[in-house]
Amino acid sequence: MNININGFEYTKKEVLDALKSRGYLILKNSFPCQNGNGYGNAQTTSTEYALKGNDLPDESTQWHCVASREFQKQLVRPPLV
Questions:
Q1: Which of 28, 45, 48, 54 has the fewest Cβ atoms within 10 angstroms?
Q2: Other C-beta atoms within 10 Å of 16: how many?
Q3: pTM listed for this prediction
Q4: Counting runs of H as helices and runs of E as strands, what totals does the chain give?
Q5: 3-state class of 14 per DSSP?
Q6: pLDDT digits over 57-76, tens only?
Q7: Residue 46 zone, left/alpha/beta (φ > 0; ψ -120 to 50; rest)
Q8: Residue 22 CB neighbours (<10 A)
Q9: Residue extents of the structural domains in the chain
Q10: Is pLDDT at 5 greater than 70 in this prediction?
Q11: What is the CB neighbour count within 10 angstroms for residue 15?
Q12: Pick from 23, 70, 66: which is nearest to 47 by CA?
C-alpha cells in the first residue's frame, strides 16, 4: 500500500519507519472477520496503529491517519505585509 503525502508517493514501509523515528510505537492488530452472510471460512484483517504517549488503538491512530497529520504540510496563504 502506498500513501500520497505533499504530492509524493511513499511506501507503507517508508512511512512506518519515519513514524518510528519520530517516537511512535507501531502496533499491528489482527482480528478475524467473516464474510457477509456469516458462513464459510473466517478471514483475518490486520492494520497497524501508530501510538505515542497514552494513545489507544482506534480509527484516528491508524498509521495512515497519523502519517497524514504528522507529515502533511498545511498550505496557508502568507500575509502580504
A1: 54
A2: 18
A3: 0.76
A4: 2, 4
A5: helix
A6: 999 999 999 999 999 987 78
A7: beta
A8: 13
A9: 2-71
A10: yes
A11: 24
A12: 66
